[in-house]
Amino acid sequence: MNWEKCSIQTERGYFEYFKKGKGSALCVTHLYSAYDERGNTFANPFTSHYSVYLVNLKGCGGSDRAKVKSEYGMLESIKDLVAIRKSLQIERWGFAGHSTGGMLALTYAIEYPAALTKIIAGGTCASKEYIQNPKSIYCKGNMNFRRISEIMNALNSPETTQDQRQALGFEWAMMSYYREEKLRESLKIPNSGRTVGARLNYFIQVDCRNYDVRERLSELSIPSYIYAGLHDAQCPYEYGVEIADLIPGSVFRTFEYSNHNPFVEEADAFEEFVAMTK
Predict the structure, then answer these.
(1) How far apart are CA 141 and CA 180, in angstroms?
(2) DSSP label of 3
(3) Residues with Cβ < 8 Å from 215, sequence gap 6 or more?
């Protein structure tokens, strides 16, 4: 069953979102992904327990374009989410985010705690330090970093055939999966979340360079559920542990047989984790 396509006008612009599930309201999004009616493999498990609002931020899908690049930033995006919630006449909602969506969750909770019932965040970190850790594929000291650069250049070349693109994409994705069969299974699941280049570039060039919320996490008092894959090659496991240690009373879950995508790599265990967050 596809997600219901919806839209709403707010004081900060027009936004597209997709809705599915029953229960209390939960917002889900990623900092630089565009969604459609197929939903998303991270968002899907939450629909068994929540009314999920999968949001396209500015520049994504059918939502308004940004008038200036700064609208792609984390703080401006959170202000957009606040406006969306108000226009939907939802007093408070939860927020779940993975990877840079998890960074959004942490920042959202710091800036607008009274507007949130809870946060659920994983595959993420509380500072830019992860890109300096050789365990991360985004660190220049990582064994895969040079190959990723080669793959990106090939994908950007008009001479690369479609078959080559698929093979390169699979090779790159495999760097974030613990087992190959789980990646192959994930490719059979209806999914959306296309990367929006302009938003990704803003994150790399601006937000990531300044990102560090560690000192403020101790202020949080809303329920916080944090998870991490033990073998995460994007945001290494220790950064998830750090977040959980910094947030008072947080609940932390380790996925022992996962890299960056436990919601696919350990789907049943992730479903149990989601049920626990209700």
Answers:
(1) 24
(2) P
(3) none
What is the C-alpha to C-alpha distance for residues 135 and 144, in angstroms, rounded to an integer?
10
H helix or E strand, kind and range, residue 18: strand 13-20
Taking only the tens place, the pLDDT of each residue in 55-91 is: 999 999 999 999 999 999 999 999 999 999 999 999 9
The string of pLDDT tens digits covering residues 174-189 is 999 999 999 999 999 9
In the prediction, which pLDDT does 57 show?
A: 98
Cβ neighbours for 28, distance < 8 A, ≥ 6 positions apart:
40, 42, 43, 46, 52, 53, 54, 55, 95, 96, 97, 101
Q: What percent of the chain has pLDDT over 70?
A: 100
pTM for the structure as a whole: 0.96
- The mean pLDDT of 212-219, rounded to a whole number, is 97
Which residues are CB-contacts of 151 (< 8 A; sequence separation ≥ 6)? 168, 171, 172
Compute the mean pLDDT over every residue in the chain, rounded to the nearest whole number: 96
Res 1 pLDDT > 80: no
Residue 167's Cβ-count burial label (10 Å; 0-12, 13-18, 19+) is middle
- CA 226 – CA 204 distance, rounded (Å): 24
Provide CB contacts within 8 A for 213, sequence distance 6+: 103, 106, 107, 110, 126, 127
- Asked if 96 contacts 46 with a C-beta cutoff of 8 angstroms, the reply is yes
